[in-house]
Amino acid sequence: MRILTATCAAVLMTAVSAAADEVAPDDVTFGEYGAVETSLTGTEGDAENGAMVMKTKSMGNCISCHQVSALSDAPFHGEIGPMLDGAGDRWSEAELRGIVSNAKNTFPESMMPAYYKSSGFIRPGDGFTGKAGEEPLPPLLSAQQIEDVVAFLMTQKEE
Amino acid sequence: MKLKALTAAAALLVAPGLALAGPDDDTLVINGETEMVTKTEAPAHMEETGISEIISGWHFRSDETQALEMDDFDNPGMVFVDIGMEQWETVEGSAEKSCASCHDAPEDSMTGVRAVYPKWNEEAEEVRTLAQQINACREDQMGAEPYGYTSGEMANMEALISLQSRGMPVDVAIDGPAQSTWEAGKELYYTRTGQLELSCANCHENNYGNMIRADHLSQGQINGFPVYRLKNAKLNTVHARFKGCVRDTRAETYSPGSPEFVALELYVASRGNGLSVEGPSVRN
Q1: ω before B118 within 30° of 0 (cis)?
Q2: A-interface mutation test, from B6, B60, B198, B250, most A Cβ less than 10 A away
Q3: Does B249 contact A137 at a Cβ distance shorter than 8 Å?
């Protein structure tokens, strides 16, 4: 238990120190059609890490709803949303940042979860425990993870 | 509806290899004799949903899982019916009675009961689930402790009682005194809860037939409850399943037996009006 607490504290501290140049979830500026022009961190995204975030169930879990050919090494791609092959052709970086941060600004009523949002939920929970959570909740992905995912999506070009 | 058609078309276009999409066309006959209604015309109140056909969860499961429900010797839920029968005959409580003392044989007294629950109780002036009625009898008639709402004992008893309605159409009343509860349940069905902001309808109305990760989404019907799940190797009650689905939206769940889940159960049951009572059914 001690060790766990120590680790948690360490994680918290990194989060806090990183937060200095980060845009907080409530401060993100969305354009009229949902795009987010400025980087959430100022640090360039890492596409390889973005791919990992998208495949991992406890992180983005994007493939539970989307098929992505480039991520076919991970099993069980869902079919709720469109296939993401070629997303980098269809959307600009700013548009993708907007979609991943809060897709509901681009697609009203979308079923896609908002990955960079921390308050304004109905019956917010504490993760998957079924117990009550207290807002502001940690967003589903960190600012840098969002940038990493956007960097990966920008590599998805078909031409 | 338009959106759904579009999504379905898109899914077909991008994934010609995924033949799994949609429910299958098999027929459920139990023990080679009881033919079940597993697909039928949607009840009138569902017109606005765009769903014209209601479909049992059985159709969305693999052939192997489906087969387990086609023969009582293979159905792992049936042993719990036997245990439920022992409970039925066991004297408990200060009145020194068993269920059998008042209700005789379940084949005689309980036929058709499962099909109409949740149901308005005139005396208590409330909509009661089958579980609440069972516990009302235990407390008020027997002077016994209530079963835990989602306990094994409750699931066993529900399985025994459900079996007496096997093959009969679900037929819960949604008008009259039950109407306000039904409306409340409907509201909950469309409420997008938790950090994932998902409603029952997002998954079970707009996306049944689609895969979400490794799961083939059904319409989330409850005509098959209690359900034996291969995943946890036990009988599962309706409210335990609701709780799991709400938890998976990263939400604070409602409690089993709460007014919210009772209302939701009535509403979800009414979306299955016309399907055969299947409990105890088998799912993965």
Answers
A1: yes
A2: B250
A3: no
- At B227, is the secondary structure helix, strand, or coil? strand
Yes or no, beta carbons of A133 and B213 under 8 Å apart: no
Closest residue to B193, CB basis, from A64, A67, A123 = A123
User: How much is the ipTM here?
Assistant: 0.89
pTM of structure: 0.93
Count CB neighbours of A21 within 10 A: 12
Q: Is B92 helix (H, G, I), strand (E, B) or coil?
A: strand
pLDDT band per the 50, 70, 90 thresholds, residue B11? very low
Sign (positive/negative) of CA torsion A122, A128, A129, A134?
Answer: negative
Give the CA distances from residue A105 to residues A88, B101, B141, in Å, rounded to whole numbers and listed in that order: 19, 62, 56
Q: Which residue bears the tokens 């949609």?
A: B22
Burial profile B159-169: b = 16 or more Cβ within 10 angstroms, e = fewer: bbbbbbbbebb
Mean pLDDT over B235-250 rounds to 98
With contacts defined as CB-CB under 8 Å, which chain B residues touch A111?
Answer: 198, 202, 206-207
User: Nearest CA to CA, how far is A62 from chain B (Å)?
Assistant: 9
Residue of B18, B191, B251 with shortest CB distance to A125: B251
Chains A & B: contacts with CB separation below 8 Å: 92
